[in-house]
């Protein structure tokens, strides 16, 4: 039996979940793997909060150096969250030859290059399965069983909060603000939900997935980002009438000489596998030249699902004589600043002759053709709701066409991409 000594940087929800999983299931894990895990130190802000029989006092420390500088500790698990000091402390652990396991998508995506470089220099391991998709083994799938594929597309629901909100809006016809308040009351959304609802969380995750999936460094700032705060019940209802389901998607595409990377709300055909992923579940759909279509689905957040992925990484780090390092092209592929998609365009327009010709004429001027159209009866103000679904068109062309419309005739209320 091989004993592996761990240090935990943090003992909050995730760190506590890892502690509990090792304590309660560590014996069975050892039987299955031949690896006995021992937590020597766990960093906390205040020992009194975590003290007692569940966590022995000798395990608790308020000094990070008891973990980062202890030669007996072989693997450091980071649960601090945020960019700093998490990134700096992970870098120090790697510098000291300790493997690092983390679920911190922010620190990892923003400091991926330097963390990888230090791990390569010292021969330590850098493991981050739990940083994207919680318990879903998407990182391992891309780096191991699918390594002989050219992955051409990554499309995922990677934020459980926004998926919960959009699912509730669709099921109940509720408005965004009302569902958000309910999600906050239930603990499914943070008091400050910006990271989730504005797409930052998914942006970090796509930076990681795109980098390892396309083998080219995809920086966070390269990922186009748009959240769900402008979505209302009309968008979802009208989309459903036209056969679509709305999701916040992280989309990456390898086009050969460039890559696309974008996070935004998107309509999917109702029969698309991702369209059926509801509630707080996460899922990632992949397309590779050899395996074709694949989707992985599961719990994307929470202490126990995330702990499951982290302990899996710890076992891998303990068993690997040589730690895996994702291949990256020396010269990163450029990230496209334009892309092609179908578009859902919802507008309020005067219910008068010539309005439809005006709108379709502006679209045609940008080489945008209409695939489907729906009109809802005029409101008391004399304006009707028009919904267009375009054929595939350039993002920039659509934005130009929308801006060129005469606001005295019609006001565009939302533009949503249509994928799948």
The domain count comes to: 3
- Name of the CATH homologous superfamily of the largest domain: Dihydrodipicolinate Reductase, domain 2
State the share of residues found in helices, binned by percent: 25-40%
**Structure classification:** alpha/beta
Q: Your description of this structure?
A:
It is a single chain. The strands form 2 sheets. Strands 7, 8, 9, 10, 11, 12, 13, 14, 15, 16 and 17 form an 11-stranded mixed sheet that branches. Helices cover 36% and strands 27% of the residues. By secondary structure, the chain is α/β, with parallel strands linked by helices. Helix 1 packs across helix 13. The mean pLDDT is 94. Strand 9 and strand 10 form a beta hairpin. It is elongated, with a radius of gyration of 24 Å. The N and C termini lie far apart (49 Å). It folds into 3 domains: 133 residues, NAD(P)-binding Rossmann-like Domain (Rossmann fold, 3-Layer(aba) Sandwich), CATH 3.40.50; 152 residues, Dihydrodipicolinate Reductase, domain 2, CATH 3.30.360.10; 79 residues, 2-Layer Sandwich (Alpha-Beta Plaits), CATH 3.30.70. It contains 15 helices and 17 strands.
């Amino acid at each position: 039996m091989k004993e592996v000594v761990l240090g935990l940087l943090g003992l909050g929800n995730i760190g506590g979940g890892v502690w509990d999983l090792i304590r309660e299931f560590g014996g069975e894990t050892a039987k299955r793997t031949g690896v006995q895990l021992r937590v020597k130190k766990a960093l906390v802000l205040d020992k009194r909060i975590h003290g007692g029989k569940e966590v022995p006092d000798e395990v608790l420390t308020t000094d990070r150096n008891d973990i980062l500088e202890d030669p007996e500790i072989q693997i450091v698990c980071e649960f601090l969250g945020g960019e700093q000091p998490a990134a700096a402390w992970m870098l120090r652990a790697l510098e000291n030859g300790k493997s690092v396991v983390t679920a911190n998508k922010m620190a990892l995506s923003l400091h991926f290059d330097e963390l990888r470089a230090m791990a390569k220099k010292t021969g330590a391991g850098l493991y981050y399965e739990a940083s994207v998709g919680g318990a879903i083994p998407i990182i391992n799938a891309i780096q191991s069983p699918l390594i002989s594929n050219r992955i051409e597309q990554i499309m995922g629901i990677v934020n459980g909060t926004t998926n919960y909100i959009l699912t509730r809006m669709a099921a109940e016809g509720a408005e965004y603000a009302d569902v958000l308040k309910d999600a906050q009351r239930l603990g499914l959304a943070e008091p400050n939900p910006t990271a989730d609802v504005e797409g930052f969380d998914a942006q970090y995750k796509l930076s990681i997935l795109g980098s390892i999936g396309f083998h080219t460094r995809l920086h966070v700032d390269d990922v186009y980002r748009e959240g769900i705060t402008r979505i209302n019940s009309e968008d979802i209802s009208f989309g459903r009438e036209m056969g679509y389901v709305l999701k916040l998607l992280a989309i990456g595409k390898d086009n050969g000489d460039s890559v696309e990377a974008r996070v935004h709300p998107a309509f999917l055909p109702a029969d698309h596998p991702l369209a059926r992923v509801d509630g707080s579940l996460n899922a990632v759909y992949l397309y590779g030249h050899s395996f074709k279509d694949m989707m992985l689905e599961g719990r994307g957040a929470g202490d126990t699902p995330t702990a499951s992925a982290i302990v899996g990484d710890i076992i891998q780090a303990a068993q690997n004589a040589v730690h895996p390092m994702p291949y990256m092209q020396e010269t990163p592929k450029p990230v496209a600043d334009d892309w092609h998609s179908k578009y859902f365009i919802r507008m309020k327009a005067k219910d008068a002759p010539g309005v439809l010709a005006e709108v379709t004429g502006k679209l045609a001027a940008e080489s945008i053709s209409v695939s489907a159209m729906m009109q809802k009866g005029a409101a008391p103000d004399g304006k009707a709701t028009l919904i267009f679904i375009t054929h595939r068109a350039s993002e920039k062309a659509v934005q130009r066409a929308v801006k060129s419309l005469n606001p005295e005739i019609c006001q565009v209320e939302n533009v949503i991409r249509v994928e799948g």
